Amino acid sequence: MTRRLRLGQVGGGEGAFIGEVHRIASRIDNRFELVAGAFSATPRKARASAEALGVSADRAYDDFRMMAEREAARPDGIDAVSIVTPNHMHYPVAREFLRHGIHVICDKPLTSDLEDARRLAAIARTAGDEAGTRFFVTYNYSAYPLIRQAREMVAKGDLGEIRVIQVEYAQGWLASPVEREGLKQAEWRTDPKRSGDGGAIGDIGTHAFHLAGYVTGLEAEALAADLHRFGPGRALDDNAHVLLRYSGGARGVLWCSQVAVGAENGLRLRVFGDRGGLVWAQESPNEMFFAPLGGAEQRITRNGAGFAAGPIVSARLPAGHPEGYLEGFGALYAGIADVLSGQDAGQADHLPGIADGLRGMEFINAAIESGKAGAAWIGF
Amino acid sequence: MTRRLRLGQVGGGEGAFIGEVHRIASRIDNRFELVAGAFSATPRKARASAEALGVSADRAYDDFRMMAEREAARPDGIDAVSIVTPNHMHYPVAREFLRHGIHVICDKPLTSDLEDARRLAAIARTAGDEAGTRFFVTYNYSAYPLIRQAREMVAKGDLGEIRVIQVEYAQGWLASPVEREGLKQAEWRTDPKRSGDGGAIGDIGTHAFHLAGYVTGLEAEALAADLHRFGPGRALDDNAHVLLRYSGGARGVLWCSQVAVGAENGLRLRVFGDRGGLVWAQESPNEMFFAPLGGAEQRITRNGAGFAAGPIVSARLPAGHPEGYLEGFGALYAGIADVLSGQDAGQADHLPGIADGLRGMEFINAAIESGKAGAAWIGF
Amino acid sequence: MTRRLRLGQVGGGEGAFIGEVHRIASRIDNRFELVAGAFSATPRKARASAEALGVSADRAYDDFRMMAEREAARPDGIDAVSIVTPNHMHYPVAREFLRHGIHVICDKPLTSDLEDARRLAAIARTAGDEAGTRFFVTYNYSAYPLIRQAREMVAKGDLGEIRVIQVEYAQGWLASPVEREGLKQAEWRTDPKRSGDGGAIGDIGTHAFHLAGYVTGLEAEALAADLHRFGPGRALDDNAHVLLRYSGGARGVLWCSQVAVGAENGLRLRVFGDRGGLVWAQESPNEMFFAPLGGAEQRITRNGAGFAAGPIVSARLPAGHPEGYLEGFGALYAGIADVLSGQDAGQADHLPGIADGLRGMEFINAAIESGKAGAAWIGF
Amino acid sequence: MTRRLRLGQVGGGEGAFIGEVHRIASRIDNRFELVAGAFSATPRKARASAEALGVSADRAYDDFRMMAEREAARPDGIDAVSIVTPNHMHYPVAREFLRHGIHVICDKPLTSDLEDARRLAAIARTAGDEAGTRFFVTYNYSAYPLIRQAREMVAKGDLGEIRVIQVEYAQGWLASPVEREGLKQAEWRTDPKRSGDGGAIGDIGTHAFHLAGYVTGLEAEALAADLHRFGPGRALDDNAHVLLRYSGGARGVLWCSQVAVGAENGLRLRVFGDRGGLVWAQESPNEMFFAPLGGAEQRITRNGAGFAAGPIVSARLPAGHPEGYLEGFGALYAGIADVLSGQDAGQADHLPGIADGLRGMEFINAAIESGKAGAAWIGF
Fold first, then answer.
1. Cis ω for the linkage preceding D322 (within 30 of 0)
2. Which of A85, B216, C261, D264 could form a disulfide bond with A319, CB atoms 3.0-4.6 angstroms apart?
3. Do the Cβ atoms of C319 and B264 come closer than 8 Å?
4. pTM passes above 0.95
5. B180, exposed or middle or buried, with CB in 10 Å at 0-12, 13-18, 19+?
6. CA nearest neighbour of B277 among D246, A175, C230, C284
7. Contacts of A163 in chain B (CB under 8 A)
């Protein structure tokens, strides 16, 4: 057996959502073992979480700095840390582990503001160049097998020159002011102090933005964003319409919303080139529709006929046995394990890294600026 | 039997598409009989078309002015005229018939430019006020039974206050420059002389714009439109992304495209309020999805459980026997017959009229202006 | 203009459903004009219906025998009669018109029992052989454009040798005993005197049976049918499961039900051969899914890419503008008009005729026999 | 942390499919740790597999009898064994571990013939009664959250009295004789020596049969099965049509096929009662459609509005983030962990056990008998 990588986690204590997702994702392919954590800044909670997770008491920290220091000093110290704190803590935590030569797997968005993001990017690049320490951002949707195939199809020219990109991420769970009713997930997401200046645009818009860029390989050059707050008394945007112009002349619209009643996690991407079009939706991730110019639309299924598993596309199950969100997230962790174990096989070019994290922050920042200026065009 | 109305037609000669659609629509409920026509300005073609359509030779005209004059003079002259010429002829033809007191059923867009539209609107209003002569514009999608139900649901408050409107009309048939390959439908639609200044925005964008307004009852106040021509050498837009702001604070995006490979007639409307959301797609018009806040999404089918046939909503077939485009178009004609026969039953408020036609032209004009100004915001 | 054919109708008076469907179908392509009728055996209703339908008083009959005789005697007598009475009247009415040399368009099932069907078949064959008088049965679903394409694909070998046929027609409208609550459509359909011995199996099972045979070109040789009455006090089957064995070794299941709550007109056909499979559903008739062995599933749309309009496949509208039930029914009438006008173009081989009608009755009869024998196998 | 259960595995060595599925399922919720295994009867492969899986050399066995004996003797011996061998080995392996008081998690079908199944059932019941040793069969589809909800809805009476059950499991991967082309999965599944007398009926038909019974709570009483072999030279059925009669009068059809070209893992269940109907498909497992009598059909999503998580229904992710096959399988393992840890919470009544395994074998046996008798009815 290739040695399982030793993983630590900062954040993700009792009741957290995304921390458990990272843990399952790390476990699903058996490439990591969780051995240390600063699951909470509250000592009692940190210990309880560690115990519940089977992390030994001596590696259950309540201070991420101490964790970084001690783990770096152990011969069996963690190989990588998973950062799943609220956004505003991403920067200080990541910085600390990078400085100790520990690889970082950071949830998105990269930070809570662009300044932090730029600083962190500089640090991460230095850490990478000087010590080979890697930095990953979990834009997990990009690791769905059919999304990776879509990227390969675009790169191969199956769609021809890309013209139009329609991407959306619609949710409805903040249609009512549930943050006032004690829903924790809603509280911090609508709180500028913990989430930064972006609401929907930061929480889900960045996912959509990254996905469009990942699949098409195009760079966004300018945007005009109409941000709005529909929830009464809400401080951050809960709906955003963004016009986009891409390098090479492609045009796009990005819509993200948390007030689209009936929508759950409606992340959907449509890409149209002069030779073909494709459609994929996250809620039904095991199928993709490809229409070649002049031909009938094809339904391509994960591992089915028409699925072209290449080095970066993996799938665990035969066609028709659905893989879901956790398997997609797990593919990110498996790819990270490959890279960190030196079995790269082309993964490194496909795993979201610091540049993607920074670009996402530039997107959020530009959208907010444009929104404040009445949806004026802004280059970024 | 209520007397069938006597119908004439201008345009729609051999090989035309929309002319035949109007004729089938007029025939489907047996409320009209086609008795006269100026199907072509070429005498030979006009006669041949009339004969093929069973119109007697003495009422087959090659000059619409003569037709208006003579039909107005006959005791059994036509009650209404259906205008299905290229867009630039709508104005002179409609004017002529209105002046002779003959009701007009005009295809959309109203005219080829805003000036004509304003003149025609003035004439139509006068004709209505002074002589009771009616003017209808065939925004046919608004007559689909479930669209009419959607309008009623919004009006009743089932969706609460409307917040977000996503409307799109995606086609892919102009992805390649087929207008250079002799495809007639493509030739005139990409020719500014016959279509006016709008390409996709005029041909299909107006449909989407009207549908959104019809269902929500909201007025658009401003837009920012990113219009683009992807087809090589094309003079008119074939893709448009339009941000919209509606009275009352709702925000919307309208996307129309003729280069979305794989799309056929992908007119789709999604409306989200603070109490519910609904989704409808023209290609599957016998079902609509309604998600009440906090409840499971419901599939409402035409004439099925949950279908609330009111005075303006009609459906000929039981649930599960699909009605299509022609039945929807036919519902418009049937409603017009009701109104012209004095059996209104509330139809008049729902049939698209001169104001809708003019508004559509204002929309096209504003979108083009905004597009020229780099997608700047324009009130309209 | 090719002369419109003169059509008469027996049955279909006020309030009837299928009579109006036939009339719209005859009108949609403008190939027929309704000029005579015995719309009811009640003189007052017959006259009122005629008037409402624009049929002149002298051709409004209350006796179908008189109608056949007089129309046959007129120089401008009807070319064809549409029979839309309850099932038990099909035989005597059809016989009468055939004897007078008038073409017959008869609703399905052919008759209410097999004896009548055999007698009628003999008469129709003689009338055809001796006088060229034609007989058509309106298995309307077989005229949907994509169904006709499916038949052509099977005939061409696109699916290879056919192995498995799954066909079903599920409705839910008789889940409750609505026949006791005054619903007329339910009353006669659950009454053996008016419908014959078959309930669901006769009303909708025959449609499914015909469709499977039409598309595959295979002959059913034996069946085992489990018929059941779920509605309290119901005399006829409202659910049937039928195992089928076809010539050449194909196996099938036919399921028809009137108690499948939630189903509307769920007629669905799936055919699998050794080289491909296809799926089509009546409620979404403008698309068909074809999976070639080893390839991705293709979505073939009416008039879209992959649609191979041949001589027998017609479609009025471009892809994406849905045609529905009435257009499909209308295609049957248009084909009949072609045949009767001598413009056959291969239609005659595809229009359901007396043999199909008789075969349907043999199917019903065999299913009932099998059902009585505890779902034993019966050759037919 | 509740102690993770110690798991062993028999079978599942390099290249096996279902063994890895069991392992991921056991890992996903972190309730088991794999510590021992007899992954292969070939010593070299057994060792290599153990090493690849992180199982220490001293607990890597090449003889399942030795494994049972030694693990039973260790103070830290395995709590449970996962049996993922070919079918004909299930009986001897399971017997051995039961005798040593080790809980058994056995893949389906229970055994390769009914005799073994009856013997094993007797042993398992005795082991349960005398030693509290548990036996589970991995009918994994029954653990999908919405399937568990469906069972609860039926039990609560939401569908009323059940009338019709349509269940199918369609695959197309054996349409061609791929077992002759070296496809291992196909080789053993088409070989009576390793699979037993059932082909499709045993491999996938049993899943469908169990699912129908699990959701409806009804007992099948008789069947008539038309089994067929379409693949050239194939010894076992690759398509089966089965009529079913259930206690209480419900009727059903079960269709399973391995030659339905285009189908992947098309397990679909439809249940109709006198008060409602529901539809669920395994390939889209995060949604279920429920039609109440007289109401609009509702789309119920996992963890969405209308989802009634009860004690036996668990779901890890919010609505709209799809869970798939592995999560469903994992729910079975998590439930087993609950039961074995004494945290039952009602799980025990819902986890498939020895009785379900035996019933599945009775179903296969009856279907084969019926098939041989020309699809005659057989009570079972």
1. no
2. D264
3. yes
4. yes
5. middle
6. A175
7. 230, 239, 259
